[in-house]
Amino acid sequence: MTTRRLTCAIDPARAAALYATLGQERDVNPGDALPPFFHHIYFWKPKPPGALGPDGHPALGGFLPDMGFPRRMWAGGRLTFHQPLLAGRPATLTSRISVADRKDSRAGPLALVTMAHDLEQDGDPVLREEQDLVYLPADFARPAPRPAPEPCAPDRLRFSTTTLFRYSALTFNGHRIHYDRDYATGDEGYGGLVVHGPLLAQHLMLKAERDLGTLRAFSFRATAPLMDFEEAEACRDGRTLWIAGPDGRLCMTAQAETA
After folding, report:
1. Fewest Cβ atoms closer than 10 Å to its Cβ: which of 10, 36, 99, 114?
2. Sequence-separated (6 or more) residues with CB below 8 Å from residue 236
3. Helix (H, G, I), strand (E, B), or coil: what is residue 73?
4. Start-to-end CA span in the chain (Å)
5. pLDDT of residue 1
6. CB 94 within 8 A of CB 3
7. pLDDT band for position 137 (cuts 50, 70, 90)
8. In a 10 Å sphere around its CB, with 0-12 CB exposed, 13-18 middle and 19+ buried, how is residue 205 labelled?
9. Is there a contact between 245 and 159 (Cβ–Cβ < 8 Å)?
10. Residues of 25-46 as b/e, b for ≥16 C-beta within 10 angstroms?
11. Residues 157/204, Cβ–Cβ less than 8 Å
């Protein structure tokens, strides 16, 4: 099974840029503990333009398998946290493909791929992550969205085009649905620019830590896209969290476990 190993210096300036993108102005110094999920702005594997697909993602068939469907998106994930990632110290991410299956759903055929990531720093485990990707045919009919639970003192979230651009740049995510409106609405049939699923998950993780304390584990699943022009609600009921769109549809659901 294919394994990929990447080492990154965990630049403090990049973490400070993510704080700013999330609406916080904060200095980050070497040795500072970073919030959960900040590792996603590190461990890039850039590809030149000729190695990209029409959607802006790296073309399939390398580390990520080609499952025979042209569209690809992040569907959810599960994380177990061992200790914080520290800024300014090298860290290593080891990744492998643990699942690659085609299946039939009520909306049509699709494929699911799961990547398992192990992050280490100074020889010690930092976190374990399972990242679920879904591959879809070009004519896939998106299922009707589910209604979200009733809000519980929600946090209001808005995502400008600048925020989407900055997050795409920090994660080196070239998927055109996040910054190319003509592509997002024309080629992929969305109502606007799509807010990154991981960006929604990042907000939920920060809310969980703020409300509940240090995270030991976190899982999330995207259920419907959120557009750049929509105001979202980040809600929590106990250890269950979710993102709701302005029409009450459920966009993401999550579960948090604290230490």
Report:
1. 99
2. 152, 207, 208, 211, 242
3. strand
4. 33
5. 52
6. yes
7. confident
8. buried
9. no
10. eeebeeebebbbbbbbbbbeee
11. no
Burial of 11 (0-12, 13-18, 19+ CB in 10 A): middle
Residue pLDDT, tens place only, 235-250: 999 999 999 999 999 9
- Assess contact for 114 and 65: CB atoms under 8 A: no
Name the token pair of 36.
């959960």
Could you tell me the pTM of the whole model?
A: 0.94
pLDDT tens-place string over residues 23-41: 999 999 999 999 999 999 9
Kind plus residue range of the DSSP H or E element containing 103: strand 91-105
What count of other Cβ atoms lies within 10 Å of the Cβ of residue 16? 18
The pLDDT tens digits for 86-116 are 999 999 999 999 988 998 877 788 899 999 9
Q: What is the per-residue pLDDT across 108-134, written as a single tens digit (0 to 9) for each?
A: 888 999 999 999 999 999 999 999 999
- Stated length of the chain: 259
Up-side HSE of residue 68: CA atoms within 13 Å toward CB? 7
